[in-house]
Amino acid sequence: MKDPQPLDRAGRAALADVALGRQAPDLVLRNGRVVNVFTGQIESADVAISAGRIAALGRYRAEHELDLAGCYVTPGFIDGHVHLESAHLVPSEFARAVVPRGTVAVVADPHELANVGGVDALRWFIRDAAATPLRVHTMVPSCVPASPFETPGAVLGPQMVAGLRREPGVSGLAEVMNVPGVLAGDPELLAKLAAFDGGLIDGHAPGLSGAQLCAYLDHDIRSDHESTTAAEVREKVGRGMYIGLRQGSSARNLRDLLPAVDDRTARRCFLVTDDRSPADLADLGHLDDCLRICVAEGMDPVRAVTLATLNPAEYLGARDRGAIAPGYVADLVVLTDLREFRATAVLIDGCEVARDGAPLWACAPVPPPAALLGSMHLAPVTADRFAVPVSGAFVRVIEATPGQLRTGSSVVPAPVRDGQVIADPAAGLAKLAVLERHHGGGGGGLGLVRGLGLRRGALASTMAHDAHHLIVCGVDDRDMAAAVNFLIGCGGGFAVAAGETVIAALPLPVAGLLSPQPFADVAGQQRMVRRALCGLVDGDHDPFDTLQFLALTVIPTLKLSDRGLVDVDRWRHVDLFVAQPQADCQRPAG
Predict the structure, then answer these.
(1) Rg of the Cα trace of the chain?
(2) How far is Cα 585 from Cα 412, in angstroms, rounded to an integer?
(3) Which pLDDT score is estimated for 590?
(4) What was the pLDDT predicted at 308?
């Protein structure tokens, strides 16, 4: 949905006539308890709505009324940073998943699609999103590719980025992940920043502190959603940043960060999901889930609502959103309580768009470009594709932690059989490979990972941030080949293999990232994948949530791209084999 036009004087005078009783409202929400995010209070009042905006609060009557019978009314929820692709739904279907839960707007960074399909993919994303009531504030990806350590599927250069600023629906420049490039003054990256001078520029700066943080902020980058500690939140707020408190599927940081949200910092914080899977959207929810966590952890409910409404609206520069006040856009949520945050009604532009968890609109998705339906350019593989001949006594290992995007790095004696490095599930070690899939070049990187809990079988995915090549992890090379070949055949997605057979899968034929199927079907397929993992993986986590970030070469410490291992801290490629352990090779995830 397009944003409403700013009110002119005539429009404001018409709202004033409604407030003064000279004209009847279009709609009145009667007998509600209004959550006031300005004062932190809850007040009993009717909400008078006219021409899609709030005209007044008080006591009003109209021909069309909705009796709330004491239910709460809050501003509509705004997700301050999300990648819709992580839900594996086309944008129009994503809207049907989140709007009934109270989300009326999202700040979306479609850099997953951009990495696969470039500008054409972005324009399709914007068009399909605009066909729904959900307000999608599209941010132009700043880092396509994310780093110089991978083979890009597409490249968005400075001129392309500048041209996209003029596209309808574009709100700013998306997360600037290449922190070393910013600090080194990379000319192309600085040109992209210059293209958005005076506009909104999102940040992405895990662990950045001190003088480097100041230098990063000197480039007018004003947000971050990668904080993992309360101390990091406090420092970044103190330097003028807005902080996205993240609770996604792959990174769940909210509970750790809430101690930093107090009277001094709260107004600079907002809730974000970043990456949330379809099953988690169905079973846990969206921002409603984040709000439940905030209240369960002891936060005042009105403050929690403010984190999901007024704060992200102000960060966006949307002066007429995020609150229930005269002249504000009537994007509203009706809730029975402020503990569970179950929406009984959702209004956008003063029109009811969802009721009791179900969307009230229908729309035909915009067909994706043909190139996005044929994005797999990878020949079938055999088990020997994953052979690693021994060439050293020790090997580097990516140390993964479920629920976190940062990894550690260790060096261990190479597990060897018949002159080949092998997986060692008893020691928690699995093989890892990233295969180039965009250009048919046949390249690939090989490594070892610990922390996914894989005891047998293999997992493969074309959701592999940010270049989205094909990533596969396994303890058996034949199972790895089976999972890879299945995804080649179906156009991408997720696959679980055991006994050289794929036992569960979620096909994602649109760019290897999205499904054209309805939300309920996609969530159901992901649940089947998770059930198949029960006999293969230790623990109750979904290893795919962690696996897809092991190729993200802009988040410390050790990652794997299609070109090999990357030491993100030192911003360079490193060898898998090490002659002997060194102190500087051992680094924890934190």
Answers:
(1) 24
(2) 10
(3) 58
(4) 98
Task: Please enumerate in sequence order all residues whose Cβ is within 8 A of that of 399, keeping only pairs 6 or more positions apart, or say none.
Answer: 407, 408, 409, 410, 449, 450, 451, 558, 588, 589
Dig out the tokens for 14 from the structure: 């018409």
Residues 408 and 394: their CA atoms lie apart, in Å, by 16
Let me know: does 52 contact 133? Beta carbons within 8 Å. no
Q: Domain range spanning residue 142?
A: 76-317
Q: What is the pTM of this model?
A: 0.94
428/573 same-domain check: yes
Residues of the chain with pLDDT under 50: none
User: 3-state DSSP call for residue 434?
Assistant: strand
The residue type of 73 is V
188 and 124 within one domain: yes
What CA–CA distance (Å, rounded) separates 343 from 333? 6
**What pLDDT does 2 receive?**
75
Same domain, 245 and 385: no
Integer CA distances (angstroms), 197 to 130, 200, 273, in order: 26, 8, 27
Q: Determine what percent of the chain is predicted with pLDDT higher than 90.
A: 95
Answer whether residue 271 is part of any domain: yes
Q: Are residues 292 and 398 in the same domain?
A: no
Residues in the chain: 590
Question: How far is residue 322's CA from residue 308's CA, in Å, rounded to a whole number?
Answer: 8
Together in a domain, 302 and 386: no
Angle separating helix axes 91-98 and 519-533, nearest 10 degrees: 80
3-state DSSP assignment of residue 370: helix
CA 212 to chain centre: 25
User: Rounded CA gap, 361 and 449, in Å?
Assistant: 45
Measured CA to CA, the distance from residue 280 to residue 296 in angstroms comes to: 19
Spell out the alpha helix ranges (H) of 102-186: 111-130, 158-164, 179-184
Domain of 291, CATH number, reads 3.20.20.140
CA distances from 90 to 375, 426, 513 (A): 16, 40, 9
